[in-house]
Design goal:
globular, 331 residues, eight-stranded mixed sheet, two-stranded antiparallel sheet, 10 helices, oxidoreductase activity, Ketoreductase (KR) domain-containing protein, Rossmann fold
Length: 331
């Protein structure tokens, strides 16, 4: 079954299961949780008895509104949810957030949901904004929180989870920059960059590569700081959202038509996000679709996929070392 056929089948005929895992005693962090999929995933986590749910958001006011909405629908105590500031386009904000996380008694799961898609080229912290938010910032966050997850695993005899919200669109990424010696330099070239859907798909492909390589390193090295942390990525499928808000005219009409005919509601899509942080060892290093481990796109598979994965990872870690020297020692 080809990608598009699988996509249509999933959207039209698969009903994602309502999350049932009990999160009692668990501290769970969700980024981008003031709206859309992140908000609905947070609502499920709160409903499922999380001890502490941290809404990691750029806007405090929107985060507080999200908290009020969740509490109103779940009846949980106010102390069960905290709103923390996190700007995924700011390296200093990410670093400060990780330091704050390190002071928590324990962390059980991180759902890295924050992401963007844009039609307009803009450099942020030296990177094209989609690359900074979806790839560099996300991996900076993940590696920054890993030590705390490893510490929690040992102290509480638990298996913490990291789940990154990827996309089935990684299957259609052309990723022409893969042929360049310096991938991230090529991604920063405004003249050759193909933005919007292609750039978004490419960043999601890079996330899949990152998850697979990180999982290998955590599994391979028994002395790693986080040997018992599960890391995976997942897709919620096509969901109703404001992701295409920059589109106008016919593009906006096409997106409206897709949303009307095929898209899942944000609540239904959020079930896939919760499945990511509820999954066990079978999901380690894997890509999930419809709440189950699934096959990746063709660029990821086979010997060539492994070579490209290592190339992407090595260059990404070099980027992160310039941001936060010593970060590679975490793994």
């Amino acid at each position: 079954m080809g990608w598009f056929t699988s996509f249509l089948y999933s959207q039209l005929f698969v009903t994602l299961p309502i999350p049932t895992r009990d999160f009692t005693d668990e501290t769970i962090i969700i980024t981008g949780s003031n709206t859309g999929l992140g908000l609905e995933a947070a609502r499920h986590v709160s409903r499922l008895n999380s001890h502490l749910l941290i809404l990691a958001v750029r806007s405090q006011s929107k985060g507080q509104a999200a908290k009020a909405s969740i509490l109103a629908s779940t009846g949980r105590s106010e102390s069960s949810i905290e709103v923390w500031s996190l700007d995924m386009q700011s390296q200093s904000s990410i670093q400060a957030f990780c330091v704050k996380v390190s002071k928590l008694p324990r962390v059980d799961a991180v759902l890295a949901n924050a992401g963007i898609m844009t039609k307009y080229f803009k450099l942020v912290e030296g990177y094209e904004s989609t690359v900074m938010t979806n790839v560099v910032g996300t991996l900076q966050l993940v590696l920054g929180i890993l030590p705390k997850l490893g510490e929690s695993a040992k102290e509480f005899n638990i298996q913490p989870r990291i789940s990154i919200v990827a996309s089935d669109l990684h299957c259609i990424a052309k990723f022409k920059e893969r042929k360049e010696m310096d991938i991230f330099k090529a991604l920063n070239n405004e003249k050759t960059s193909e933005l919007d859907l292609e750039r978004y798909s490419t960043t999601k492909l890079l996330q899949v590569f990152g998850v697979r390589e990180l999982a290998q390193k955590l599994t391979r090295d028994p002395e790693s700081v986080s040997p018992s942390v599960i890391v995976n990525c997942m897709t919620p499928g096509a969901c109703k959202s404001d992701f295409f808000r920059e589109n106008k005219g016919f593009d906006r009409f096409k997106n409206w038509l897709l949303s009307t005919l095929l898209a899942r509601s944000t609540e239904v899509g959020s079930r896939a996000l919760v499945a990511g942080i509820a999954a066990g060892e079978e999901s380690h290093g894997e890509y999930m679709a419809d709440c189950l481990v699934a096959e990746t796109g063709t660029l990821v598979r086979g010997p060539e996929g492994m070579k490209l994965q290592k190339k992407v990872w090595d260059q990404l870690v070099r980027q992160l070392e310039t941001i936060q020297p010593g970060v590679s020692s975490i793994i």
